[in-house]
């Protein structure tokens, strides 16, 4: 990372030190540089790892809030690491930091549970902001990739999951939960939703978590797909 952040910057959020971050990359110099930049910015870097199996073991042990994850890892692909860890702990946020901007890699990462996807060409300050936003639950993508992901949500909506004959009646959402769900489906970040509805960021998060629980969904990908299937993004 070539840029540096000023650890004495008065505009730096005070809450950064509360965010526990783990960095996973198989290149030691890059991994150490990322961890150093994040620590200098005030994040609590609780662990690093250089391969897939080590990443899974250490993440289970240290329970980070955000996993900064490379996709190309020895022993186990990054998408599998993401899938296993998010499956075991849905509260974990994963920010993929990859050299690849291939559409297939981006979509596979998101489908495995990643909250965001940033290219390694990003500067240090961009990474710091991305980790902070990822911890807050906002989807973070290198410019140009967010539209790709939303487009995939729409494609998935044309091939809905098959219904079973004993499928229970859809849970009843409150008006506010439906409103938040509609804005999530439109691709708005939690911060943007909070500003639009004049409520706090945490209230938006609570509504999303309540909705996930009611609908028995696991992550934002499934939530957006659910909303688009029901036409909420066009409402």
TrEMBL record:
UniProt xrefs under Gene3D superfamilies: 3.40.50.2300
**Response regulatory domain location:** 20-135
What keywords tag this UniProt record?
DNA-binding, Phosphoprotein
Q: Does the keyword DNA-binding apply?
A: yes
Q: Where are the transmembrane segments?
A: none
Q: Which SMART domains match?
A: HTH_LUXR (SM00421), REC (SM00448)
The HTH luxR-type domain sits at: 166-231
CDD domains hit by this protein: LuxR_C_like, REC_NarL-like
Give the modified residues of type 4-aspartylphosphate: 70
Q: What is the protein named?
A: Response regulator transcription factor
